[in-house]
Amino acid sequence: MSRVGEKIKSARIELGISQKLLGKKLGVSEKFINEVELGRKIASQGIIDKLSKILGKNINDITMSFEEQAYEEEKNEKFSPVPKKEKIQVQDVWSEAFSSVLKKIPIYGYDINKIINFKQLPIINNKVEGYAQDKVIYLQIESNDMEGFRIQDGDLALAHITGEIENNSICLVEYGGKREVRQIKKMDNKKVLLISGKNSIRTETIEIKDLKIIAKLDKLEIKL
């Protein structure tokens, strides 16, 4: 159990609040409260602030940075030999802790079927880049059709899954039995213009009913 977990547990028991009730008041699961008290998860500042109000005392002094707790554990290891199994357990706990602030984002091709690789991005307010964690992906660009937009074969584009048509957005779309990255420009309630191009602009007029939006591109990582 970590210092943080011990103090949270002590304050909770002092008030006679169960893990289940505390979790309900915080809007989190009983399992989350248990893992925080056991030191397997790190409580965010937002959770700490809510705990202060619920427990009726300022407990901000129990917050610690990852570096501080890692230093304490390293110091304890130097002066108190720890069995090999326990060291591995500590490493597992810290792996879980960091996984709660970083998200492994899958990299896909246009078929969004097989994962090519992963990249990590920070989780902020339970979201990644402002979107739900399970909606964010990376797309590996598969052609130079959008070279005129500085999007080339091999580049990585951060995107989020959506089915909505957004005017002037650049999206992975499906039409005519194929998937391509195109800029979308609305013409009316029935048709859109799909724009691509290398040295010159190329346009295609498509009826909205024949177009499927797969994902909207948000950021581009250029391949050097």
From TrEMBL:
Signal peptide: none
Domain of life of the native organism: Bacteria
Record's keyword terms, sorted: DNA-binding
GO MF: DNA binding
Keyword Transmembrane among UniProt keywords: no
InterPro entries: Cro/C1-type_HTH, Lambda_DNA-bd_dom_sf, LexA/Signal_pep-like_sf, Peptidase_S24_S26A/B/C
Matching Pfam families: HTH_3, Peptidase_S24
Domain HTH cro/C1-type: 8-62
Name the record gives this protein: HTH cro/C1-type domain-containing protein
Organism: Clostridium kluyveri (strain NBRC 12016)
